UniProtKB/TrEMBL annotation:
Coiled coil: 153-182
Pfam family, one: V-set
Domain Ig-like intervals: 20-120
Organism, as annotated: Elysia marginata
Name of the protein described by the UniProt record: Ig-like domain-containing protein
SUPFAM superfamilies assigned to the protein according to its UniProt record, in alphabetical order: Immunoglobulin (SSF48726)
InterPro entries per the UniProt record, alphabetical: Ig-like_dom, Ig-like_dom_sf, Ig-like_fold, Ig_V-set
Keywords of the record: Coiled coil, Membrane, Signal, Transmembrane, Transmembrane helix
Length: 183
């Protein structure tokens, strides 16, 4: 009777592992934006929690191509199964990409071997400009404006001085003409 019990136990375990999942998969975050060099982490779980024993069966894929126009009217996609490596870590639904690069940007999906609908996430990789560069540009523009202001003030002062000298010359000529008339 011992072999029969072992077979029943094995059938029970196989039934649990292949039993369809009830509930929905969900991911957090749905969209993640990181800079190059940072790590990106997504978590895929069952919303109802009843399938927590199936967390080890969740897989992550990278969507490499999506064809929207097919003859059947369904969307076709090409996806690559992701496995653990020095760059990628997948454990119980948690998916981590280490040292993200621009090439890692794109769509990923989590699913299991049941009929539950897979869920997609988006990884956005952006490059923030350095604040030192922005500060340098701001400093250069400020210095240029200051230089223009100083040059404008110097030109204005020279014009004012020239105008003052012209007025004095005019006064002297008028005075000389008046004195000449008086004599």
């Amino acid at each position: 009777m011992q072999p029969f019990a072992s077979i029943l136990y094995l059938l029970f375990i196989m039934t649990i592992l292949h039993m369809p999942a009830y509930g929905q998969l969900s991911t957090t975050p749905v969209e993640l934006a990181v800079e190059p060099g940072e790590d990106a982490e997504f978590t895929c779980t069952w919303e109802d929690g009843a399938n927590s024993t199936k967390q080890d069966l969740l897989t992550w894929h990278r969507i490499t191509e999506i064809s929207l126009a097919t003859s059947t009217g369904n969307n076709n996609e090409t996806a690559i199964l992701l496995t653990n490596s020095s760059k990628v870590e997948i454990r119980r639904g948690v998916f981590v990409i280490r040292n993200v690069t621009f090439a890692d940007a794109g769509l990923y999906k989590c699913h299991d071997n049941s009929d539950a609908a897979p869920v997609e996430v988006a990884l956005i990789v952006y490059d923030m400009p350095s604040y030192w560069v922005e500060g340098g540009i701001l400093l250069a523009v400020s210095a240029a404006l200051l230089l223009v202001l100083v040059a404008g003030l110097v030109v204005q002062r020279k014009r004012a001085e020239r105008a003052r000298l012209e007025r004095e010359k005019k006064k002297k000529r008028h005075r000389a003409a008046w004195l000449a008339q008086e004599k």
